[in-house]
Amino acid sequence: MTYAAGVREILQVGRPPNVKALFPHSRALIVSGKAIDRAMRARGKPSPWPPNGRSHFVIRGALRAAQRANAP
Questions:
Q1: Residue 71 binned pLDDT confidence (cut-offs 50, 70, 90)
Q2: Secondary structure (H, E, C), the chain
Q3: 20: phi > 0 → left, psi -120 to 50 → alpha, else beta; which?
Q4: In whole angstroms, what is the distance from residue 72 CA to residue 61 CA?
Q5: In whole angstroms, what is the distance from residue 29 CA to residue 52 CA?
Q6: Under a CB-based contact definition with an 8 Å cutoff, are residues 40 and 46 in contact?
Q7: Who contacts 39 (Cβ-Cβ below 8 Å, separation ≥6)?
Q8: Which of 7, 11, 21, 66 is the most exposed place for a label (fewest CB within 10 A)?
């Protein structure tokens, strides 16, 4: 599969309906987190979710969770 074909497949499969309706001609890779999570689980790999770093409490909690899980 070529890179362009892979991008087209991602756009068809992973874009939420509301994004498709709002931006029907856009090729921006706005993909649902649910689609990413399902793909990662299907491959047997953990799903990385970056924390929202606006609060030091969130950052500290994310770092502690990553350390406990031995994950980056």
A1: low
A2: CCHHHHHHHHHHHHCCHHHHHHCCCCCCCCCCHHHHHHHHHHCCCCCCCCCCCCCHHHHHHHHHHHHHHCCC
A3: alpha
A4: 14
A5: 20
A6: yes
A7: 14
A8: 21
What tens digit of pLDDT does each residue of 15-63 get?
778 888 888 887 776 766 777 777 777 877 766 666 566 777 777 887 7
Question: Cβ neighbours of residue 52 under 8 Å, at least 6 residues apart?
Answer: 58
- Model confidence, pTM: 0.39
Rg (CA), the chain: 16
